[in-house]
Amino acid sequence: MPARYLTPLCNRRRFVAASAAASVVASTALRGKDLQAKQPQEQAANQSDPKKRVAVTIDDGPASGAGDDLDAYLRISGSLRKTFVEHQVPGIVFVNERQLHVDGQRDARIRELEQWLVDGLDIGNHTYAHKRMREVPAWEYRDDIVKGETVLRPLLEKHGKRLTWFRYPFLDSGRDAKAAEIEEFLRERDYRIAPVTVDYKDYSFARNYTRFLRAGESAQAEEVLDSVWKALDRAFEHSEQRSQNLLGYQLSQVLLIHCNEMNALTLGDAFQRIRDLGYEFVSLEEAMLDAAYATPGLPPGSMGGWVMDGLTSVRS
Ligand SMILES: [Zn+2]
Description:
Blueprint: H1 6-15, H2 18-48, E1 53-61, H3 70-86, E2 92-95, H4 106-118, E3 122-125, H5 138-147, H6 152-158, E4 165-166, H7 177-188, E5 192-193, E6 198-199, H8 203-214, H9 218-247, E7 253-258, H10 261-276, E8 280-282, H11 284-287, H12 307-315
The structure holds zinc ion.
């Protein structure tokens, strides 16, 4: 098994009871062999299409679900961050600053977040408290954007970078005058809006996966993980087909995943699987150089949600 799998598996060993962990590790090793067995066929597919690119964006950062547990926060964020580095994937984490403000822990939490920058990764604003745009007044949403950058902006500047990217919570970017108003507000504050084109809904599996691991039910956890990989394959296939039908080529895709415990334990496998699908990992900036993202006349809210829907409405 490649060395890059060892870190998440070591974390997983700490996470579960020793006996359950041993079983999970063994079955994960088998899954690794399955992946390798598929490679020759998939590599042939890669050669016929060498230009598939994807940017990985990870939301609800840096550690969703950790609550006020500092150890869990450090473990989840640290493991995700190290997996990006080990797999040489140029990721961006979209942060809810609310996670940083736990009494007595602010310094440690901000220091861990800063490590993402030290490691060469990027950070974007995902609002302070993850509100749904359509459920709050525009002033309250604008306020949550500003509140979500009070730590991020100086932190990025300290490392010679600028706070550039914004991701709408729930991809709820609207379609009306309020959507246009928020987009204008983001422009005024020098934000670029991060779209999404691939989403295998990792969050919908995460809770079951960790629940089974905690209960020592490793076989069930592995079943959940098999469903995750099937969903991943389907999501990429869907986006590729949609891109080909609409644009006639493979759009530089933008993947959405989340900073949860499941990914902290398994993200290395996800990266390998995406590589096996023929993808090269690129930064969000690089993906956004694709001309489709600069299509004029996109309706308000298009860029912040399912941008392919906006592109479809312009081109049809
Ligand atoms: Zn989110």
